[in-house]
Automatic annotation (TrEMBL):
GO terms for cellular component: cytoplasm. Residues 216-237 have a biased composition (Basic and acidic residues). Zinc chaperone that directly transfers zinc cofactor to target proteins, thereby activating them. Zinc is transferred from the CXCC motif in the GTPase domain to the zinc binding site in target proteins in a process requiring GTP hydrolysis. It holds the Pfam family CobW_C. Residues 213-237 are annotated as: Disordered. The lineage of its organism: Bacteria, Pseudomonadati, Pseudomonadota, Betaproteobacteria, Burkholderiales. Residues 242-333 form the CobW C-terminal domain. This is GTP-binding protein. PANTHER family: COBW DOMAIN-CONTAINING PROTEIN, COBW-RELATED. SMART domains: CobW_C.
Amino acid sequence: MTAVPPAARPRLPLTVVGGFLGAGKTTLLNRLLCQSQGRRLAVLVNDFGALNIDAELVASSAGDTFALTNGCVCCSIGDDLTAALIAVIESPMPFDAVVIEASGVSDPWRIAQVALVDPGLSLDGVIVLVDASAALAQSRAPLLADTLERQLKAADLIVVNHCDRAADDERARVRDWIASVAGATPQFETTQAQVPLPMLSGLALPDMQLAPASEPAHRDPHGHADGAHEHEHDDPAHGALFDTWSCRPARVFSSTALRAWLTEPPPGILRLKGVLRTGTQDSDSTWSELQFAGRHGTLRTVPAPAAGPALVAIGLRGRLPMAALSALFDAPG
């Protein structure tokens, strides 16, 4: 593999994983490392020893770094997060994404802000885990309440973990408490931090399976493009947990209008990404990449894509606002 100069690389997607002690962050990181699906991930952690990486996955180790057989690397942050990120960005062999584990008592949004100022990074999302069996007691503890609420308010997706340890009525109260703090931020209930990769990273969004740009995509009565409904993941049941919508938007969009839409999109969208034309008319249009994850969205200028305009979105089954998405992006100009 030939080394790519840092200046010639695309911006590196950054995901921050937060949550209080015992919520399941380390389990989630292990899943990401083991199920990277061919993507080169750099995972930065505080408690290096807690990951307990399977020895069969380790290709080599040096100091506080493990290189894995699937191309991923796991490093200890140490005392300098900035230095660790610079090392990842300037690595001779480029990574596809970087994931940072926030400490159990830290504010993940402060870490995520690094992505907003470093030109080599773009924020892909903030994932916060909650222990369903302990959250209510923790929320009533005076010394913990503020920390927990800050974490929830930072999240693009809240993973309610350890649901097997909580009764139905307790899980309902946890959902209500989270909503009272984080509003409409999407919640996903699970055990053992089993979360479909497309929910965690825009890089893992399902293939759009669209017709060529010169042909219309065929849709079923529910608005799905052909083949875009069910997808295979590490757990076959995950394909039944979310819906997918996609289109090839033909018209030119107003950047101002899109940014306003991104501040308050319709509820139910976990992730939305793609490339479309923006400007005032065809002759003056540019290409822009649109990204949205849970609560945060961005729009930035990019080179013209060879495949033409395309967008894909996912949401939990039955909650993805397909009609609203089609009305905005798939309607004639």
